[in-house]
């Protein structure tokens, strides 16, 4: 069952990679998904290596210390939220800093995703939140903060880099992505502790 | 993708709209698979937390197509 879900998610990620390349231009689309992949890779490896927030069941496909599915599910989910926001607001996202309305739509979609992913992952034993994590109906409260903040943070960073020339753009991404990924993992753990969640 | 709601813009085909919404269709299929697997393997279906996502997806799929 775990392998089926891993392979299905990998297939879905490859589909959105093709989707991004076809709808946003090959270079822009692939660059967007590559940045999302890097974000997930860094964040989930930080979670795994420093034992933050949750741990993972042993899975078949891994990348570094984290399961591949944990790495790519962020990219798939944030990209799906981006498509949702574009469809509902009519605002193209990617070439500039998104409006508050578009970011609100992304955040709303990511919060809704928590209710699907987290209870399901807990039930099938793919991810285990730290002992004592407060939750309702299998939804950890801190995840309701974590999902939208990482997505909005990424889209702000991506929009900021898109408005720069290529050298500055690369600098924003190569400095900003690790900072966002690590800052989010450690920051969310600190917030969780501070709130007692 | 400029002027997405311009009234004289040509209506997008169903296939074109389907491809544009592909990531959301994939997500809806994941939700459906999870909703089938849960009761089959675990005896119960934890449906209440899934409602917000189901509502958002239904809203996108059922609303009139945005013109391209």
Please tell me how large the radius of gyration of chain B is.
Answer: 16 Å
User: How far is the first residue's CA from the last residue's CA of chain A?
Assistant: 30 Å
Tally of strands of chain A: 6
Run of helices and strands of chain A: HHEEEHHEEEHH
Radius of gyration of chain A: 16 Å
* Range of helix content of chain B: 55-70%
Enumerate the spans of chain B where pLDDT stays under 50 for 5 or more consecutive residues. Answer: 1-7
Share of residues in strands of chain B: under 5%
Order of helices and strands of chain B: HHH
Number of discrete helical segments of chain A: 6
Structural write-up:
- The complex is a heterodimer of chains A (197) and B (68).
- Chain A has six helices and six strands.
- By secondary structure, chain A is mainly α.
- The mean pLDDT of chain A is 93.
- Chain B is mostly helical and 68 residues long.
- Chain B is 59% helix and 0% strand.
- Chain B has three helices and no strands.
- Chain B has helices spanning 14-20, 22-42, 51-62.
- The model of chain B is unreliable at 1-7 (pLDDT under 50).
- Chains A and B meet through helix 1, helix 3 and helix 4 of A and helix 2 and helix 3 of B.
What are the main properties of this structure?
heterodimer, A: 197 residues, mainly alpha, two-stranded antiparallel ribbon, 6 helices, 74% helix, B: 68 residues, 0% strand, elongated, disordered N terminus
How would you summarize this macromolecular structure in one to three sentences?
The complex is a heterodimer of chains A (197) and B (68). Chain A is built from six helices and six strands; from the N terminus they run ααβββααβββαα. By secondary structure, chain A is mostly helical.
């Amino acid at each position: 069952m775990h392998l089926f879900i891993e392979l299905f998610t990998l297939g879905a990620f490859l589909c959105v990679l093709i989707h991004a390349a076809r709808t946003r231009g090959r270079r822009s689309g692939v660059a967007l998904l590559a940045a999302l992949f890097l974000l997930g890779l860094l964040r989930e490896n930080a979670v795994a290596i420093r034992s933050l927030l949750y741990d993972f069941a042993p899975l078949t496909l891994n990348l570094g210390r984290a399961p591949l599915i944990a790495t790519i599910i962020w990219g798939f989910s944030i990209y799906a939220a981006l498509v949702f926001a574009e469809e509902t607001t009519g605002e193209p996202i990617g070439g500039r800093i998104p409006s508050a309305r578009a970011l609100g739509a992304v955040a709303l979609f990511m919060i809704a995703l928590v209710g699907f992913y987290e209870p399901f992952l807990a039930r099938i034993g793919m991810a285990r939140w730290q002992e004592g994590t407060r939750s309702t109906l299998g939804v950890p409260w801190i995840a309701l903060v974590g999902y939208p903040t990482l997505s909005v943070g990424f889209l702000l960073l991506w929009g900021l880099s898109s408005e720069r020339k290529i050298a500055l753009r690369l600098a924003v991404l190569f400095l900003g992505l690790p900072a966002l990924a690590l800052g989010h993992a450690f920051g969310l753990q600190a917030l969780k502790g501070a709130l007692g969640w | 993708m400029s002027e997405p709601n311009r009234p004289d813009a040509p209506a997008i085909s169903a296939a074109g709209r389907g491809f544009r919404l592909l990531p959301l269709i994939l997500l809806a299929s994941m939700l459906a698979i999870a909703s089938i697997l849960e009761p089959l393997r675990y005896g119960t279906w934890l449906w209440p937390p899934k409602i917000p996502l189901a509502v958002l997806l239904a809203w996108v799929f059922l609303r009139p197509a945005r013109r391209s």
